[in-house]
Amino acid sequence: xxxxxxxxxxxxxxxxxAENCKLDLRxxxxxxxxxxxxxxxxxxxxxxxxxxxxxxxxPYAGLPSLYLAHTGEVSExxxxxxxxxxxxxxxxxxEYHEDLFNPVIVTLDLSRTHLQALIASSEPNxxxxxAALRDSEIGRRNKLAFSGAGGDEFAxxxxxxxxxxxxxxGAGHTVVAGYHWFTDWGRDTMIALPGLTLSTxxxxxARSILLSFARSVDHGMLPNRFPDVGETPEYNTVDATxxxxxxxxxxxxxxxxxxxxxxxxxxVLADIIRxxxxxxxxxxxxxxxxxxxxxxxxxxxxxxxxxIGDWVVTPRRGKAVEIQALWYNALRIMEDxxxxxxxxxxxxxxxxxxxxxxxxxxxxxxxxxGCLYDVVEGGTRDASIRPNQIFAVSLFNKxxxxxxxxxxxxxxxxxLLTPFGLRTLSPSDLQYRGRYEGDPAAxxxxxxxxxxxxxxxxxxxxxxxxxHGRSAQSRRRAAQWLSALTDFIANxxxxxxxxxxxxxxxxxxxxxxxxxxxxxxxxxxxTEEISGKSPSPxxxxxxxxxxxxxxxxx
Length: 554
Hints:
alpha+beta, 2 domains, 5-stranded antiparallel sheet, 3-stranded antiparallel sheet, 26 strands, elongated
């Protein structure tokens, strides 16, 4: 597939000798989006036009045409192939039958020319350009993999996988959260940005993405999701906006580009803090105790956002643990930026951060379990053992003491760690669901109730390395934890890592077959954390060791 184009090159090669060897190709066309299926219908226009040496198919008005450049002989077909059955869709409780239309037959004479090609595209192409398109793309990928990963084969695969999520939005760039049915989500983009762009040594893309989202901030909130076809963005998340601060910090630590942050981002970040202090959508506001409240009845504002009708599967209204960690981290980032840029009095952000930290451990520490409560709402404390607490240890600015951080890591490891990532709920919990299967309602009810999310391996390993002083032994152990993902990407994953796995062994893959933040977080671990390589000067502050723990916890 040619980079930056809606163009696919297909080549057929005959290896060996054969007389009168011909290959009949029957293009099957659907012309639909990824949520639906096509069925035989009389509205389809079966006509095939010849334009600029390409076959042109325009079966439905208002949709892009498909161009097919080729080296063969063409004969008419004009027939429907009925009842293709899609087994995975059947298992997922979705429509799994489809009819596909075959407009023509293209016959390639391989005995005359042993290597022939087709170019399928949304624009016409010269068939003679097939080899050049293919070679150019292979060369681009080889260069990208070498520059971003050196000689490590697993890292090379991750770098190539990361490249597939970067997309254009208008004049800028964005991140497709997952394939095949996600668009660009604010939360996923900010979490994935460091791994997809900075770990692959493409800060220009990071800058473009940050700028695109900064221009979309409204009432102090980052969009949660850009819809498919140009509708108004959805502003219904509390954490995407706070992850924006960490993405900016990572960008600045990697590039040292303080001028860009000062001129394009700082005022947006400061405005976000002001909105959160005074209150914005969905009850998101600073509480009197210095912690952040979020949520209204029927809403799901954190990353655990499954909802079936009016039922919020994982209700986390009130003060969610990772939201407090992100809020504190954002305040410390603003304290640092305001001081470096001589902007608003840094003491304001310092005081807000100090208030939040002073209340946090008192309110959230669960001494009986040796970890943090997941959500506090009024007098209710949710003792569910979930992975959200790991962010209080893994983020750059930490809210907990080293002693409690070590306890949190041990508890999370004991209850949640699997070969593929962290479970979203301890198996000892009565609400635990170990299998992600069935129709949409069944799957949504298990989405964050025990499923394993491989992207969480990133924050967990960073937290583990921090509390163990990033020793050679701790790095070796962390590398062992990635071995199952290494095998998966080379085999079942076909070069990609999925959205999630079952909580129960053997941990079947589920959800999207390719997920941006999964690739991004695992790539960061491989290139920055586990390798133990010395970072470039611009990246020094992207890491933290226990020797500076007290400083970073205020």
